[in-house]
Design a protein that fits this description.
By secondary structure, the chain is α+β, with helices and mostly antiparallel strands. The protein has helices at about 5-25, 35-60, 65-80, 85-90, 95-105, and strands at about 110-115, 120, 120-125, 125-130, 135-140, 150-155, 165-170, 170-175, 185-190.
Amino acid sequence: MPRAERRFMIGAIALVPILLGCLGWMLPSVGGSVVIPAVIVFGTGLLIVIIATAVAMDRPRWRPFAISAVIATVLVSIWTFEFSLSMQIQFSNATAQATAAIESSHGVPTCSMHVRGSVGPLSAPYRECVSGQMVTFTRAGTTSTQGGGLIYASNGVTGLQDACVFTLLDDWTMFASDGTSCPLGYNFIPGP
């Protein structure tokens, strides 16, 4: 294989997981389905695999690219579903924000509106409500029972009922509650 073609193939092999990873990072949203973004990533990867397989049929040297595209598609789809939003919280100062809000409330339930910044994947404007050892972050204009949001509970218990939840990290839960049905990937917690 000529050197220029080898370099191109290595670049193409590296580009597939980067492209799919960017989609997997940008598509999931707080309160939205976690399955649909994973399916979009998988579909995009599948399209790349089909094209790569067609090229590899005429040029057997390109089989490693087709194989790597299959592997990247599967792994990044799983990552999008299971870890994308969790990593956005992990790589932000969301936990520090939540613990600071709990400490500053001195045990008194409080709510405040933030017009700048973000809490992990939830961008401003958002509402922050502290109650005991729990902080709820919701989109502006919604309440804790509408739309979706994030909950930080230092003891891991959220106390949500009649809500759809998706556990992100030990102390972080994403919720969606529109009163009709849960987005794909969420679990429903019934009330008493």
